[in-house]
Amino acid sequence: MTAKVLSLAAISDRIGMVFLIEGQLKDWVTSETGALSTVAAAGYTQELINRYRPDVVLTEQIAPHSQKAPATIGLIRAMARTAERNEVLDVVVPRVQRYANKYEEAAALAEIYPALEPRVPAKRKYYDHQPRSLVIFEALALAHSIRSEAP
Question: Which of 4, 50, 111, 112 could disulfide-link to 54, CB 3.0 to 4.6 Å?
């Protein structure tokens, strides 16, 4: 059986998705519309599940003292609940920060998945918004973490 993995992440005002088949990156996308509310996040997640027909859906496990905004936590929980209601293996993955920052993580992941190299964001100034593509790398980090931990 071919393992098809849909990995979802949310940061501030957007949702990111990566889709892998047997560990090979096949598609990625971000959505601001899907992040407008928990209802929108659930609907968007269902659309993705219907479109890609994954075997596994990954979402982030919310740490007890998460620094994510309450609205972002709500989006993540809505995505996870939607995955639970489908005939897929829904896996909640702890978000482990293995790099000094998200920008270093994105660059390291782009070395493994070169198709995303053009999407690696430059480090932002403190007064800039988070780059739009960063959420794709958050989703990819979740997928890569379970791949890295497999025997």
Answer: 4
Q: Which two tokens stand for residue 68?
A: 């994510």
pLDDT digits (tens, 9 = 90+) for 20-58: 999 999 999 999 999 999 999 999 999 999 999 999 999
pTM: 0.91
Strand locations in the chain, DSSP E?
4-11, 14-21, 24-31, 56-61, 89-94
User: Which pair of tokens denotes residue 142?
Assistant: 């979740």
Residues in CB range of 24: below 8 A, 6 or more apart: none
The burial of 97, by beta-carbon neighbours within 10 Å (0-12 exposed, 13-18 middle, 19 or more buried), is given as exposed
Q: The tokens 């609205």 sit on which residue?
A: 71
Nearest to 71 by CA among 48, 41, 102, 101: 41
Radius of gyration of the chain (CA): 14
The per-residue pLDDT for range 116-138, each reduced to its tens digit, is 999 998 876 665 667 778 999 99
Structure tokens at 134: 């960063």
Q: Which two tokens stand for residue 69?
A: 């905004």
